[in-house]
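Practice problem. Given the sequence and the SMILES for nicotinamide-adenine-dinucleotide, write out the predicted structure.
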Amino acid sequence: MVKVGVIGLGAWGWNVARNFAGLKDCELVACSDTDPKRLAAAKKAWPQINPVSSLDEMLAKFPEIQAVVISAPAIAHYPLAKQALLAGKDVFVEKPFTLSVRDAEELTAIGEKNGRIIMVGHLLEYHPVVRRLKNMIQANELGEVYYIYTQRVNLGRIRGDENALWSFAPHDISQVLYMLEMEPIDVSVRGQSFIQEGIEDVVFLSLYFENRIMAHIHLSWLDPHKVRKTTIVGSNKMVVFDDTEASEKLRVYNNHAEVPSVRSYGDSIQVRFGDILIPRVDMSEPLTLETQHFIDCVRTRTTPLSDAQDGLRVVRILEAAQKSMEQDGVPVRIQGGKSDKLPSSVFADRRWHALRA
Ligand SMILES: NC(=O)c1ccc[n+]([C@@H]2O[C@H](COP(=O)([O-])OP(=O)(O)OC[C@H]3O[C@@H](n4cnc5c(N)ncnc54)[C@H](O)[C@@H]3O)[C@@H](O)[C@H]2O)c1
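Answer key:
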């Protein structure tokens, strides 16, 4: 039995705690929230748990806890994770890992030095459909990947402590990196704050990868429709993953454009329309798979799929994305752990040459 303590029992943290409480090889020993009402509700839901008011109290009273799960607001991730790691605990941190590359690097180093497991809550990496998409891409089923776009929009909870970029993009960025097994060259973002000054509600983010692959991410909590969609266009096939569908979440379109190898004057490019397939994907709740993976990693001392390095990669892109958004969409390069501004003229040149290569 892995003994776990959960910090933060808000809208999402509650689901996280519910999952850890339900795993066979895990014991939810203690929960903490700064709001006593949340703690009282948790005690009612899981009578076996010990409510505590802080991580300090949790560490002092329950030294048998092996792993600390942090689902408090993003601003609290770094200090709580650092304290738990230094106390010798393994740590699960919700996304975003931290709010800066510096903090993410420090936590990663502490984890490595002390042999602690760090896992970041990149939920979509545990989604059965995303795993299927990754397999399809890596097995070259779609052909050459041309571009990906994701939409994460609805009229939803408008947060006051973080913008739509930091709140939503960790999902889409981690998903794209996981599927492609690549890191982008640069990121360009435009966003706008309509409701609260300085907190962007709507964000359009573009990642540019090697081999001309593009990924475009649309995020908003100000939209009439709830959309959770990923579209991938390849040279052989196109796929659409719609996470709002109850069962038929994945559609594969056997459609593509056919360019003749020798093209003489007057030949047109053929567009082929094939069958549309709905593959069967065995579904389990991604959060259950994710929490079970953390417990397995703690038990067997294996590196999680969404480990600290994965969290760091995503924070690196988020930080560069924030920089780009503050400069009205100027592409910001993502390079070896530090991002620096790439002048637009260089960007334009590079793309021009790439297109003609
Ligand atoms: N993986 C996902 O799909 C997903 C979805 C939503 C949110 N999240 C992440 O989960 C985390 C929590 O999100 P939420 O929607 O539950 O937020 P929330 O605002 O609903 O709840 C946060 C809770 O943490 C408590 N809290 C604040 N500071 C604390 C501290 N220092 N110690 C203990 N408790 C503290 C608050 O009282 C509140 O109950 C965030 O990091 C968020 O980004 C992940």
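Check your answer against the key. Residues 337-357 have pLDDT under 50 and may be disordered.
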